[in-house]
Amino acid sequence: MASEPRKRGAFIVLEGLDRSGKTTQVKLLEQRFIEAGRPAKTMRFPDRSTVIGKMIDGYLKSDVEVEDHVIHLLFSANRWEAAHSIERLLNEGTTIVCDRYYHSGIVYSYAKSNPSMPLSWLTAPESGLPRPDAVLFLDLTPEEARARGGWGNEIYEKEEMQKKVGEAFRQLGGVVDGGEIERDEDVVVVDAGGSVEDVSEKIWSVVAGALNAVERGEKGGVRTVP
C-alpha cells in the first residue's frame, strides 16, 4: 500500500510593535504545537547570527549609520538567506512560527516617509519569498508598550515611529480604512493588551483556522509572495 503524501507544515508569522509580547507568544505557540505532537520550529527576523544579520544588528543598535535604501535591502536579504530552509522545513511537515517577517521590513521602511522609497519599491525585493499562511499583528499602543519596560533601546523604538508602524499594520489588517497601504488578506489584527493567556487564546483561534486550511489542502504547497 502506498504511503500517504506527507502534509506540509504551516507557516505562521507574529508581527507587532516592540514590546508587544511577540517573543513570549511565539514560544507559547511553539510549545502548543510540540505538546500536540506536531513538529515545530521557531524563527526570528532579523536573524542577527549571519553576516548580513550582524550588519543589521549594528544599525539597530545605532553603532553604524546605514542609508535607508541599503538597510531595507539588507533586511530583505536576511530573509532570503533563510528562504530555502523555510521551504525545506515546510515540505518536511514542520510548522514554522516566525517572530517578524517581510511585513515588518516593508512597514518599518514605509514609516520613515522617505519619498524615494514608494511602496512599490519596498515590496519588490520580497516577491518570491515563502508566503505565510497566517500573519497576526499583535496590536498595542506605544504607550502600553513603553510601560512594559525595556522600550527605547534600539533605533526604531521611538514613539513616533511606533505610531506610524501601528497605523500601517492596521491598514494591512483592514482595521483602518484609507491610506496608501492596501488590505492584505493574510494579516489579522489581534488585541495584545490583555493577559498573556488571553492573548494566547486569541492567537490560537486564528492559527487553528490556518492549520485546518493547510491540512485540507486549501492552500496547496508552499506558497510564494506575489
UniProtKB/TrEMBL annotation:
Listed Gene3D superfamilies: P-loop containing nucleotide triphosphate hydrolases
Q: Does the keyword Kinase apply?
A: yes
**One of the protein's GO biological processes:** dTDP biosynthetic process
Q: What is its EC number?
A: 2.7.4.9
In which domain of life is the source organism classified?
A: Eukaryota
Q: Name one Pfam family in it.
A: Thymidylate_kin
Thymidylate kinase-like domain ranges (all copies): 14-203
Q: Which family does it belong to?
A: Belongs to the thymidylate kinase family.
Task: Name the HAMAP family for this protein.
Answer: Thymidylate_kinase
Q: What is this protein called?
A: Thymidylate kinase
Phylogenetic placement of the source organism: Eukaryota, Fungi, Dikarya, Ascomycota, Pezizomycotina
